[in-house]
Write a structure and sequence with these properties.
Layout (H helix, E strand, L loop, with lengths): L4 H25 L13 H22 L6 H14 L4 H25 L3 H21 L8 H19 L7 H20 L4 H22 L2 H4 L4 H27 L8 H29 L10 H20 L2 H38 L1
Helix pairs in contact: 1-2, 1-3, 1-13, 2-3, 2-4, 2-11, 3-4, 4-5, 5-6, 6-7, 6-8, 6-11, 7-8, 8-10, 10-11, 11-12, 11-13, 12-13
Length: 362
């Protein structure tokens, strides 16, 4: 049984809406006078679980080819609607809890079919989603979700690197190193339930260890020497790992104290520097696989990737120096970088589809 195309399109449109509204919320929160976005307090959850959760859910549903796997992206997309309409927090939390639980079940099924380390790692990431949703459902404030939200994304991406890039690490020692780093992330996130400062520092150490592991073992270290799309993807990956390492250091030093100097930098080096670099790097693979659309590589793809790095540097500099205006402009540059990404994707897909259609008529 296949999922009807209208449902797939609707879910995809909601995820894009979540991205746009999440960026709008972020700009208003950082001080730009751009009207009043709905539910501004959901900025983090709507981007991580609403946008990225929906996209990751779609990606895994397509990969496993089971119709029930679409429960995750459908419920994640529905949670975007409940957040924006001001529905009770309990309803949104319940939707996200079920969505994450289905994702965990999906990885359990996948592991029975293919018992590989990357599936285990992504499954642990899905458990982090469930724990983030449970924390929110319990009535905890959004900052309490951050370690689990970060763990969900970091472990999912690390698992995808194991799956897509076939990392060259094959020794037992290297695998134990990665397992140890993951254990530190999970332990820190759990401790943060009771001791927020200590837990965040420990989770930050785990994030740093994973970043160093990826920088050491990812095949991108080799493929960066090649040309074309291979070099572009490798550059995006390595830049993302550097941002993850910087974020880990900032988590360790700041303890993620809400509102303190460095808090914004600690979050956005991870959620923008790392995550968006990963998205840009994987776009040439994910878009054709997820949407079935032609996405031919072109040098223009470097523009949003480079612009993103500059924008995060500006924002982090402003935050760490206590310069509100610099941080504010850094946030605007972040939004422009994401807009450039969307523009490049749309133009590239149109060009690719036109070229594909032209070949069919020859």
């Amino acid at each position: 049984m296949t999922v009807p195309t209208p449902i797939r399109i609707s879910v995809a449109l909601v995820s894009v809406t979540a991205l746009v509204l999440g960026v709008w919320m972020g700009l208003v929160r950082i001080g730009w006078s751009l009207g009043s976005p709905p539910a501004p307090g959901t900025h983090g959850p709507i981007l991580v679980l609403g946008f990225l959760g929906t996209v990751i859910g779609m990606e895994r549903a397509v990969a496993i080819g089971r119709s029930w796997a679409w429960i995750t992206p459908v419920l994640a997309a529905t949670s975007v609607i409940t957040m924006l309409t001001g529905a009770p927090t309990e309803l949104t939390g319940a939707l996200l809890l079920v969505a994450g639980s289905v994702l965990v079940a999906l990885f359990a099924v996948a592991y029975r079919m293919q018992p590989e380390a990357h599936i285990t790692l992504m499954g642990i990431g899905a458990v982090a989603w469930v724990l983030a949703a449970a924390t929110w459902l319990a009535g905890e404030p959004v900052p309490a979700l951050i370690p689990w939200l970060a763990a969900f994304l970091i472990l999912t991406i690390a698992g995808e690197r194991l799956e897509l890039a076939r990392l060259i690490a094959t020794t037992r020692s290297s695998k134990r190193q990665l397992a140890g780093a993951v254990a530190v992330v999970i332990a820190g996130s759990a401790i943060a339930w009771v001791y927020a400062d200590t837990g965040a520092r420990i989770a930050g150490l785990g994030n740093l260890l994973i970043a160093l592991w990826l920088l050491r073992y990812d095949i991108a270290r080799r493929t960066i020497r090649l040309g074309g799309v291979t070099r572009y993807m490798a550059a995006g990956l390595l830049l993302g790992y550097v941002w993850l390492a910087i974020s880990g250091v900032l988590w360790i030093s700041s303890g993620l104290q809400y509102g303190a100097t460095g808090y914004d930098a600690a979050l956005h080096t991870l959620f923008l520097g790392f995550i968006m670099s990963m998205i840009m790097a994987h776009a040439p693979i994910v878009i054709p696989a997820l949407a079935g659309l032609a996405f031919p590589y072109g040098p223009v793809m470097w523009i949003p990737l480079i612009f993103l790095q500059i924008s995060v540097i500006v924002r982090v500099t402003g935050d760490l120096n206590g310069s509100y205006d610099v941080k504010k402009w850094g946030g605007m540059l972040n939004a422009i970088a994401l807009a450039l990404l969307v523009l490049v994707v749309v133009v590239t897909v149109i060009r690719g589809e036109l070229a594909k259609r032209a070949l069919r008529t020859v």
